[in-house]
Amino acid sequence: MSTTLSITQSMQHGPVLGDGGYLIELERRGYVDSGSGREKVGTGRGSGQFTPEVAIEQPEALRELHREFLRAGSQVLQALTFFGTREKLNRAGYGPQTEAINAAAVRLAREVAGTQALVAGSVSRTQLIERQGMEALPIARDHIAEQIRLLKDAGVDFLILETFFHLAEMKVGLECANAAGLPVVATMSFRPLIHQCTDGHSPAECARVMSDLGAIAVGANCEQEPARMLPLLREMRTATKTPLAAQPAAFRTTDTCHCFTRQAAFPDDLETIQVSRREFIDFGRAARAEGIGYVGGCCGCNPAYIRALAQGLSQPA
Hints:
Distance between the termini: 24 Å
Number of helices: 13
Mean pLDDT: 94
Strand order of the largest sheet: 1-8-7-6-5-4-3-2
Strand content: 5-15%
Helix content: 40-55%
Radius of gyration: 17 Å
Order of helices and strands: HEHHHEHHEHHEHEHEHEHEH
CATH superfamily: Homocysteine-binding-like domain
Structural class: alpha/beta
CATH topology: TIM Barrel
């Protein structure tokens, strides 16, 4: 893919293949801390798990993972800036390196992408809403806006707003991206069930709001494996004509809890709920048949899963 093409133009030519999950894969390779030894993981209290300081501490490890995703067929490489807001990095002890971490992550992705792939800046929820409630939205806005400015200055082609649990915080993210003039792929995460996000909105309502706020593609990421995520995406399709985006996780969920981060296996026994690459071949085939515009992977998806997605996208339904 030539970087002279925008992400919007690229989606017009068929599904764009993104990359996979970075933080859990780098944790498995020994470069990132899962956080389980520091706090009760998943509560949002304390420093939290899986922060992206690897961009400045182990750049070659991140560079190599980018290379592997590119070889697997990724047309977009995400800069490892997930959980890269100053507030989150402060809790992990890296607040003074916020600018350096974001800039280095974009530079590394750009070096590997060259003219073969676009580079996206990843912006996630802040965790402030989970920890402090909706009254923290103005503070979250400040931190999201700052990170988006850093990513724009570093030269990303577009943003991926991902793993937002509250539609209210996603709206803040989209408003900040609009102010910065950057295109956005926006994906919500749904837990504990796929029927609504944490502040009570259905997938269809989330899709409509994200579309109305200018996202160039809307959808879901993380928490669910492909088969569990497909019905959620189909509901979103009923509410918008905006292209859909999907980045499923590679971990199995249950009928009573539709999210892997609330399974007992999270974060240190995830291998026990890993899904097969075959499910991503099938998902790629379904994504092409259903006209999903942007397809990638999230937590648990290493380059082999992206290669499987590419294989599925190349096959007839």
